[in-house]
Amino acid sequence: MRRKITALLLGLGVAGVSLLATSGSAQGHGYADSPVSRQQLCGNGTVRNCGQIQWEPQSVEGPKGFPAGGPRDGLICSGGNQRFAELDDPRGGAWPASAVRAGQSHTFRWRITVRHATTDFRYYVTKDGYDPRKPLARGDLEPQPFLTVPFGGRLPDSTVSHAGVLPQKSGKHLILGVWTISNTGNAFYACSDVTF
């Protein structure tokens, strides 16, 4: 009897370890808060009816390799994660937008809840003529990031800030921040609606 109980407990332990090892990413990592991201707007209650993202704004993780890889068009703001599909909903173009100044320096900031070895942070902006009433697609973005901050595999602090010059734009646009992790197959995505 003792041998059967020991074997059962060992089997349950192995199953538990296997489940943890194969369950994917840990809960919570980081999000952009300058300019304020959609997930932060949901997390702080500024925007309602956000689903699960309101409880875990730091969890917008998806495959890395953007723009050649990564989440598919229409699912970019959620990182391709269906649990956070509300981030891909353009809400008729009514997401609150941060006021920014074209051609001026801006301090971009991320709040990091779980630190990861980092390749870089990259920022893309939508092209002129962008329609904020439609889900974000690659074709909506300028092909090259306007700012890339290399990290060389280092661990970021709990708050990461870096300055960059905003592109020459006018009107409502979207800035996509991509935090690429160096030692996993994933990146974190943050969509920030802005008005130049």
Automatic annotation (TrEMBL):
- The name this protein carries in UniProt is Chitin-binding protein
Q: Where is the Chitin-binding type-4 domain?
A: 29-194
Against Pfam families, the record matches this protein to:
LPMO_10
Q: Which residues form the signal peptide?
A: 1-26
Q: Which domain of life is it from?
A: Bacteria
Sorted alphabetically, which PANTHER family does this protein's record hold?
CHITIN-BINDING TYPE-4 DOMAIN-CONTAINING PROTEIN, GLCNAC-BINDING PROTEIN A
Q: Does the record's keyword annotation contain Nucleotide-binding?
A: no
Q: Which UniProt keywords apply?
A: Signal
Looking up InterPro entries in the UniProt record yields: Cellulose/chitin-bd_N (IPR004302), GlcNAc_Chitin_IntDeg (IPR051024), Ig_E-set (IPR014756)
